[in-house]
Structure formats: structure tokens, C-alpha cells
Specification:
Length: about 375
Amino acid sequence: MTVAVDAVEAFRKQYGAEPAGLWAAPGRVNLIGEHTDYNEGFVLPFALPQRTVAAVSPAPAGEWTVCSTFTDEAVSFGRTEPGEVTGWAAYVAGIVWALADAGHEVPGARIALASEVPLGSGLSSSAALESAVLTALIDMGGLDVPLDRRPAIAQRAENVYVGAPTGILDQSASIRCEEGKALFLDCRSYEVEQIPFDLAAEGLAILVINSNAPHQHVDGEYGARRKSCEEAAAILGVRALRDVTVDELDEALSRLDDDVMRRRVRHIVTEDQRVLDTVALLRAGRVREIGAVLTAGHASMRDDFEITVAQVDVAVEAAIAAGALGARMTGGGFGGCVLALIEAGSAATTTQAVEKAYAERGFTAPTCWTVTAGPGATAITR
């Protein structure tokens, strides 16, 4: 694993020693279920083969230093509160803070990070970083943190310390996914089911298309969507929009005066149903039929939730025109990546079609690659 070698080399350069161990956590692709997580609904992500690796060694109690291959800067800090460490190192300081806030004695550490998860692409590079560091500190400190509790700690680091109002999808995928499976997660109960997701056996593949229109969660748009959903739930008298079913949707929408809020609610309620429909199709072995569900999800994100941009819309349209069974944006929106369900062996022709469509519009060229479902966070051997 080249990225592991990079992490070790960064550790040696910064600290003049060998790390005690290596821990890796993946980015993720969300197959279906966008913005449903913070509405206590359902999601269906799978882990990417691309990972972030943390090379770590013990340090004196109450002392943490982190460096990264992405910057020459090394950041040292002691026990901090939200807002005291900023920038990229806030994700590491946030994990230390969240573990301590949960009552754990967090071991001091020297950390070096390297990653092959594309930054700002909607593939959750931040959750991969958080999950790798969290797993390392838990293992190194012998902390009693069950696997099903770990995503909430990482989410709290991002929500409270970093200030990004994300749901629990990304951290759950990075920590709890299994190889060859998609993670069916109930974001209210945190119950999971590992859904077989072996596309090669069906003669299919997932093509990820990085639109190269980067997104950023720590801004007003993501937060505005969340606020609108929470306000709508309060008006409708439910704990979260997950409690509105598709059969109840028309009646619920009639009780909302604001058209924008109606469209936001319609996306969440129908997106939850699309997750359930996709899971049912995968359980039944009707994998090819999920393509239409994916495409319907994109239309909902584009028209009702209004989180797509021109580059991702063009990528979806071009992929489908080139023969993809379905395509949709994946991630929080406002840029990032598209996934396309394609016939195995058609990645090159689909990529060419998207590149041509981008060139015709003067967009920065996309980056495309096929992916398979990988494992979640774990210690790795050198």
C-alpha cells in the first residue's frame, strides 16, 4: 500500500523515528440516501479501496502532534476545546476532544497522515482521517469503545469541534463497512445490515466520476438544508422527517406553506424510500434494476433539494447517454463526485463520453475510476 509507505516516510521525516503502528480508514461512496442521515433515516454507503493512513507512536500524556503529507506544517496541541485548533488539524484535535468528552483517557500521540482519498470530492476524506485517528487512539490506549459507538464520537468531533453539521453516514461507512458489502444503516437506531454488493458477479461495475468541482461542507448551504428539514419536522409534529412515509407525503406537503420547504421534505421522504427500494432489489438479486432508482435520486437532489451543480448534472446525463444503467451524484452536494452503474468493461467508453461533454462546455476535465466495496477502519501490518 503506497499510501502506507508515504505515512511511514512522513513520520520518519517529522519525528526521526519509526511509528509504533499503522491504522487505515477508507473514504466512501454513498450508493443511495443523501441528506437522510441527519433526518434519522436510511443510507446505503460502501467503503472505497482508497484510504487514509495514520502512522502513530505514543507521546507523553496530554501531548499530541500531527503532520501530513499534504502540508509542511506540523501542529502540536494539548487538551483543547472546540475552536482552539483550526484548519486541517482540527479534525485530529476534534477526535481527541470527543474521546475525552466521552470519558476516555486519550493517550498522547505523534501522528503522521497520508491519504489517497481525493480531497474535496464528496468521498468523505474528512471521515477517513477522523476514523483512522480514532481507531489508532482507541487501539493504542486500549480504550473500551465498542465498534457501534465509534461513528457517533467521530461525528461529534466534526459537528462540534470542526463545526460541520454533517450526519453520521460518513463516519459509519468509514468505520463499519465490510469488504464486498454495502452498509444498510438506520440512522436512528444505528442498526446495520451488511448487504451483499458484488457487482462483478453480475457483469457490472461502479464508475466514480470526480467532477473536479470541489464542495465544502462548512458553509451555509449544507446547514441551510439541515435547518429547513428540522423546521419542517417541527411544523409536521414529528421527531424527524424519517417519520413521514411516502403514503403520507401529499398530506404532509399540504400542511407546509413554503414551497422551498415542501421540496426539501419531498426529497428526504422519497429518498428514504429509494434506500429501502434499493436494499430490497439487492436482497432479491435484481441488481440491474437499482440503476433507475439511482437516477431518480439524482433528479430529486437536482430539482427538490437543489444541491447539484452543472458539472455533476452533465456527468450524469453523459454517463446515461453512453449506456449507464443509472447515475447520480454522491455526497453532500455542491460539487464532488457522480457514481454510474455500468456494464463491466464499459468504463473507458463512459469516461470518454463524460470527458467529451465536459470539453464541450469548457469544464475542467473530470477524473474517473472504477471502485469496489472495501473494508472499514483497521490496523494494518507493514
